[in-house]
Amino acid sequence: MTAPERTMKAAAQATADPLLSVRDLSIYFRTGRDRSNRVVDSVTFDVAAGETVGLVGESGSGKTVTGLSLLGLLPDGIAWSEGDIRFDGRNISGMSEPELEKLRGRHVSMIFQEPMTALDPVFTVGDQIAETLLTHFRMSKKEARERAIQALADVGIPLPQKRAEEYPHHLSGGMRQRAMIAIALACEPQLLIADEPTTALDVTIQAQIIDLIMKLVSDRETSLIFISHNLGVVAQVCDRMITMYAGQVVEDGPTDTVLTKPLHPYTSGLLGSVPRKSISASRLPSIPGRVPSPDAMPEGCRFEPRCGHSRPPCTAPQVLERKPEGRAVRCCRHEELDLKGALE
Amino acid sequence: MTMLKVEDLRVTFMVNMGRDPLHAVDGVNFELGEQQSLGIIGESGSGKSTIARAVLSLLKISNGRIEMEGETIATPEKPGRAGTYGVQIIFQDPHAALNPRVRIITSLVEPLEIQGIGTSASRREAAMEMLGKVGINPQLAMRYPHELSGGQKQRINIARALLLRPKILVADEATAALDVSIQADILNLYRDLQEEFGLSFIVITHDLAVASYVSDNIAVMYLGKFAELGPSSVLAKNAAHPYTRALMSAEPEALPRHMQSTGRLVLKGEIPSPVSPPSGCRFRTRCPIAVERCATEAPAWREMGPGHHAACHFAEEVMAGRPLAAPAEAAE
């Protein structure tokens, strides 16, 4: 596999600056003529070159819209964002649509949960990969075709020459997700955003796709933002994990440390509620209540109404406090609490 | 006491314009005791939901017999009548299972109306009481489905199923669409209800951890047949079928990297078409230890221990810990 543009990646690694830096990102959705809801609130995080970062949380936590906004893909006129998104030294948040088009698929790519809706049903798989290549590189159609077949081979699709001629409906769910990955990585982007890429797949196929994503991003030193509600998958794939709750980052840190000793009660609650195959006798701890709706956010800590450790100071708004060892937590009581991790 | 007995169950669909038979369930036997729970796991297309539908008489069986408390309730000649013998189901999508145009209370009392149980007032009273038992504030009964969360709707579906006082509740991927903290609530609720109503459960799921959390026994299904059936604790630690081992090892655990099991067994390829299953052992095309014999001779359903059966020529060796070579990456 040729590497058409390693220079940018090398430059990014050479400087100490992170590849992606998100500062105070807020996302609003219009709910009426003069009304809107803030669904993502001042999200701040960095992704270094070659780093794999998991974004975890339940439905409605804002993980997916955060991912979409990084590519300027929020639905026009309905949603908009504030804040600063810097990618490889450039400001994404201020980019025009033509500038974004040069970035998408070339430097930043995204794959989605349901490959069938993300692939175009009326074009062959090979054409869809070639399209990406022809958009971003000066090459002949023949060359693009050859590269497309190679891309299919790279994602472990058997008989790539034949598969390139087929339409998405000919492929199984697992093969479609491989084809999606081939399209996303065809131009060797520096950052891949994967939004629940294995959620719709069987566990055996999920294992194949996880192995494939891990191998491809590590071979190519691609940075990865992996959005998932499945803590097991994130534990396997990601160096670092960021927990989101009700539109805010509540915890950020190295995956293994967070799993062993979470600092936020919500992270701890999530870890506890996952059933484990080895334990069957005890009751599963669950988190009472539900995620607040964006138009009725608690004034103070957003998790406070569901938190078993709530005290009077928790009714005040919480700040994301930076901690040693690259950790951060949004909980004023984190120093006094001894929360359960994945091992208890 | 045996609640449900399923003997040599086969369900065949005709596909490709009626030319080819598809054996969705191809000779399955199991029993379910009182207050017991059976988990059925397998990949999409393995036939697990078809078993659920057969047990509920939502489809006609092609062979075999289904017995409930010693009475035959369904054979190919005399199909069962759904809803008449104490088996109810809850489905995966809690929203799709409720009529969006009517209030919750209307959906709840409808099964009782159809069965002609009680008076209008007693039906409402029973519905309100049942909502309390599944942990829903009875005031929500006057709401419409879109006003409730997924977890609340699933509890309401459970309440509706329980109003007919079933002896067996079938949960077909009933927590797959829910967030983990909500899923934990529903799984705990299963346990409470099992005790309170003396219910037996059949839990159909692709999630092994869910199956082992709620089930006494687990059946592992592959292409219409059981590969293995046994106590959850035995299958979790000492599975006899390579497919069970593969499923166990494929499930990622939320543990720090140094504690994750090493030597993960990632299966090659995908489940073959059930229209033309492989000869001999159906799993052989993806099995890491398959030999020639597996292609010619279908493995017998053998007893491996108390209540533990498996269909593999090498079941003893697998149980004894024979290493299952981990192929590097799928489908070169």
Overall description:
The complex is a heterodimer of chains A (344) and B (332). By secondary structure, chain A is α/β, with parallel strands linked by helices. In chain A, 32% of the residues lie in helices and 21% in strands. Chain A has 12 helices and 12 strands. The N terminus of chain A is likely disordered. Chain B is α/β, with parallel strands linked by helices and 332 residues long. Chain B contains 10 helices and 12 strands. In chain B, strands 6-7-8-3-9-10-12-11 form an 8-stranded mixed β-sheet, with helices on both faces. In chain B, strands 2-1-4-5 form a 4-stranded antiparallel β-sheet. Chain B is globular and about 65 Å long. The termini of chain B are far apart. At the A-B interface, helix 8, helix 9, helix 10, helix 11 and helix 12 of A face helix 5, helix 6, helix 7 and helix 8 of B.
Note the topology.
The complex is a heterodimer of chains A (344) and B (332).
Chain A: H1 6-14, E1 20-30, E2 36-47, E3 52-56, H2 63-70, E4 79-87, E5 90-91, H3 97-103, E6 108-111, H4 115-118, H5 125-136, H6 141-154, H7 160-163, H8 173-185, E7 191-195, H9 203-220, E8 223-228, H10 231-237, E9 240-245, E10 248-254, H11 255-260, H12 265-273, E11 321-323, E12 327-329
Parallel strand pairs in A: 3-8, 3-9, 6-7, 7-8
Antiparallel strand pairs in A: 1-2, 1-4, 4-5, 9-10, 10-12, 11-12
Helix pairs in contact in A: 5-6, 5-8, 6-8, 8-9
Chain B: E1 2-15, E2 20-33, E3 37-41, H1 48-55, E4 63-68, E5 71-74, E6 87-90, H2 104-115, H3 120-133, H4 150-163, E7 168-172, H5 180-197, E8 200-205, H6 208-214, E9 217-222, E10 225-231, H7 232-238, H8 242-250, H9 292-296, E11 302-305, E12 308-310, H10 315-319
Parallel strand pairs in B: 3-8, 3-9, 6-7, 7-8
Antiparallel strand pairs in B: 1-2, 1-4, 4-5, 9-10, 10-12, 11-12
Helix pairs in contact in B: 2-3, 2-4, 3-4
